[in-house]
């Protein structure tokens, strides 16, 4: 493939400049001094000197430094954030968050050298509030490829690597458990008021250079539910919801709280329903006089009954005998019930004819 002098020069100079910036950023990020590698200017010159390479070759060259980046991981961590401060080469230190579902959760870290030839020596230290430095010894391993530490409490940790290559990594570990609380606030015959609480765990870490105390941002969301399902207005907006459509059966109310780290807390309580509902069915609802009609009670928690059949006849039985309408016309039947706790409800059936 042929290129004009102008096109060829621009293509190579632009790629060379991008390559220079990429190398400079990533080698500084992993702590390699510029004198450890040939001068970046020479790289750009050599890159410009050659004919344009195929895209796949350029991509492989571009991605090569990524394989050399520092390795510091936290197996089992729910999420990772990054420090507000910047460390060596403008990078930010990882902040690993574990969810404390069991109540006994601890953290762990694994480190491996980003460059050099194994074996390496690893020395782990924990942040000390007393000295404002990483001065508490944790573990030392010599002559290994990688190193890990477990059973870690919350705090900051730094590992120094030596032997085949000299560098250090810093990370912070937090054990997260948002707080949730679900309870009954109030109830009457007509409504149920729930009381909830959702609080996030708070985390603070230090800027190793200045010792400044920094807060890790953390938000919260919540969701009310019940089993069996019942009406809860705005279950993800109102932390203390009220329903005027209370459950007619016993339910379990549950509150789930989730924070920004993805950690979850759940609380629940058993609710014993006291609510009543008047209901009945009619068979048949129309016909020629005299018409015999059967009324079947379907009420919930009725203890006292009062039927009004619409033709001056009444009954106090929960399941009255069939009623006979002798005169043609339209009749409205009304049922009022009252529970043992004096909760009252009523219902009516329009137009028996």
Class per helix and strand makeup:
mainly beta
Q: Can you count the beta strands? A: 24
User: Which parts are unreliable, with pLDDT below 50 for 5 consecutive residues or more?
Assistant: 1-19, 25-70
Largest sheet: 6 strands, mixed
Mean pLDDT: 85
Number of continuous helical runs: 3
Percent of residues in helices = 10-25%
List the helices and strands and how they pair.
Blueprint: H1 5-29, H2 40-49, H3 55-63, E1 71-73, E2 79-82, E3 94-99, E4 107-112, E5 120-128, E6 133-144, E7 146-152, E8 155-163, E9 167-176, E10 179-187, E11 192-199, E12 204-206, E13 213-215, E14 220-227, E15 242-243, E16 251-259, E17 264-271, E18 280-283, E19 291-297, E20 304-308, E21 314-315, E22 323-325, E23 331-338, E24 344-352
Parallel strand pairs: 3-9
Antiparallel strand pairs: 1-4, 2-3, 4-7, 5-6, 5-8, 8-9, 10-11, 11-15, 12-13, 14-16, 16-17, 18-19, 19-22, 20-21, 20-23, 23-24
């Amino acid at each position: 493939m042929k290129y004009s002098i102008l096109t060829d020069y621009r293509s190579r100079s632009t790629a060379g400049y991008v390559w220079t910036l990429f190398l400079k950023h990533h080698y500084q990020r992993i702590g390699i001094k510029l004198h450890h590698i040939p001068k970046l200017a020479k790289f750009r010159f050599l890159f410009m000197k050659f004919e344009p390479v195929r895209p796949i070759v350029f991509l492989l060259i571009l991605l090569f430094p990524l394989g050399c980046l520092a390795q510091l991981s936290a197996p089992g961590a729910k999420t990772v954030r990054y420090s507000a401060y910047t460390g060596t080469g403008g990078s930010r230190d990882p902040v690993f968050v574990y969810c404390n579902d069991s109540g006994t959760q601890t953290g762990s870290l694994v480190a491996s050298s980003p460059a050099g030839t194994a074996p390496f020596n690893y020395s782990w230290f924990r942040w000390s509030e007393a000295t404002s430095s990483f001065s508490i010894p944790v573990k030392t391993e010599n002559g290994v490829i990688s190193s890990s530490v477990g059973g870690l409490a919350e705090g900051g940790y730094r590992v120094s690597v030596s032997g085949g290559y000299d560098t250090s990594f810093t990370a912070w570990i937090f054990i997260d458990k948002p707080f949730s609380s679900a309870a009954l606030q109030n109830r009457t015959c007509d409504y149920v008021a729930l009381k909830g609480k959702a609080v996030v765990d708070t985390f603070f870490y230090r800027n190793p250079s200045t010792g400044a105390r920094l807060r890790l941002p953390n938000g919260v969301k919540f969701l009310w539910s019940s089993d069996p399902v019942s009406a809860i207005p705005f279950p993800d907006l109102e932390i203390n919801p009220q329903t005027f459509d209370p459950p007619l059966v016993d339910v379990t109310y549950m509150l789930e709280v989730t924070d920004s780290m993805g950690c979850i807390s759940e609380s629940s309580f058993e609710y014993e329903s006291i609510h009543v509902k008047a209901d009945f069915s009619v068979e048949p609802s129309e016909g020629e006089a005299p018409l015999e009609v059967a009324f079947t009670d379907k009420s919930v928690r009725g203890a006292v009954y009062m039927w009004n059949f619409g033709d001056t006849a009444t009954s106090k039985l929960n399941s009255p005998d069939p009623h006979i309408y002798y005169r043609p016309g339209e009749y409205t039947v009304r049922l009022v019930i009252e529970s043992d706790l004096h909760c009252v409800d009523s219902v009516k059936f329009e137009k028996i004819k």
